[in-house]
Write a structure and sequence with these properties.
Elements: H1 11-21, E1 28-33, E2 39-44, E3 47-52, E4 55-59, H2 71-79, E5 81-86, H3 92-98, H4 108-112, E6 116-117, E7 126-127, E8 132-143, E9 152-163, H5 176-179, E10 182-184, E11 190-192, H6 215-218, H7 225-231, H8 240-247, H9 250-261, H10 266-279, H11 283-294
Antiparallel strand pairs: 1-2, 1-5, 3-4, 4-9, 5-8, 6-7, 8-9, 10-11
Helix pairs in contact: 8-11, 10-11
Length: 296
């Protein structure tokens, strides 16, 4: 384990560790407008949702390498309005282009080829190509330092949301496959939240807890931490009668015979079986398999 005090390195060097380890980070593609009416469009990956009543977002434009405020922050201070456009895979290269350091009054919508759409309640336009966009008003601006790289915490309240029709499921929820989001990693890396990168984790229940798992499971060389988390989420274990009946099924008798004739350690065989069942979200049958060789 590499242990580094944050103040023992130059700011930029520790920053690289920070953004390499904390991710993927959502991207706020922020459109703002100056007091004079000049539009700016710029992405920020120090960004997230921080509340729902009222709906609140946070973004943090760092001071640039010269310690100067970025154009987005200047506009936020002047007009107090912003549209947070959400970035998906179809627009990521154009979004990256807009992050180049253009002069303040250059319109990045034009430089990056995006389409301006008039907002409903705020002055900055939104990005037509974005799958979702949030019109926001600034509620608080909190500087965190004055040196290059220091952040400015900007808290904004959402007043209007826009969502493209084709990103919804039949139940009216946003489909992660259809919205096809991207996140920011370290250096030049991004991640696409689609395909095999997406997986579901059931909402947690109090369950029996990790501490109630038999030691033979906690110390298993085969079961992973994710496996144990699923096992610990059940409300109650199968009864001894259920375990006995399960062990008498044809498939389980054959599995036991194969372990004996093949000189395999039966608990390891059952741990492998449980691992496969848990990958299929079949937690109950995994428990039945484990209790045949574990006991409780």
């Amino acid at each position: 384990m590499k242990t580094i005090a944050a103040n023992s390195l130059p700011q930029l060097e520790f920053y690289r560790y920070l953004i390499g380890a904390v991710g993927p980070r959502p991207i706020a593609f922020a459109s703002t407008i100056s007091e004079e009416g000049h539009v700016n469009l710029s992405p920020f990956s120090f960004f997230n949702v921080i509340g729902s009543n009222p709906p609140m977002l946070m973004l943090s434009p760092n001071l640039n390498r010269n310690g100067h405020k970025k154009h987005t922050l200047l506009n936020l201070e002047e007009t107090g309005e912003v549209v947070i456009n959400i970035v998906n895979h179809d627009m990521v290269e154009q979004m990256s282009l807009s992050s180049a350091e253009f002069d303040r009054h250059v319109n990045e919508f034009q430089k990056a080829g995006f389409t301006e759409v008039a907002s409903v309640q705020v002055r900055p336009p939104r990005v037509a190509e974005a799958p979702a966009a949030f019109e926001c008003v600034v509620r608080q601006i909190i500087p965190t330092g004055s040196d290059p790289g220091a952040g400015t915490l900007v808290l904004v309240e959402v007043v209007v949301g826009h969502f493209r029709d084709d990103i919804f499921t039949d139940k009216g929820l946003i489909d992660p496959h259809k919205i096809d989001l991207v996140g920011r990693m370290g250096a030049d890396w991004y991640v696409r939240a689609n395909g095999e990168a997406l997986f579901e984790v059931a909402r947690p229940k109090a369950g029996i807890g990790y501490d109630a798992l038999p030691a033979a499971l906690r110390d298993s060389r085969i079961l992973t931490g994710n496996d144990l988390g699923k096992l610990a989420s059940v409300d109650a274990l199968p009864t001894p009668d259920e375990v006995r009946s399960y062990g008498e099924t044809q498939a389980l008798r054959e599995l036991g015979d194969e372990a004996r004739t093949g000189c395999q350690y039966l608990p390891d065989v059952m741990h492998h079986r449980a691992h496969q069942l848990l990958a299929q979200q079949n937690v109950r049958e995994a428990w039945l398999s484990l209790l045949l060789v574990t006991g409780k």
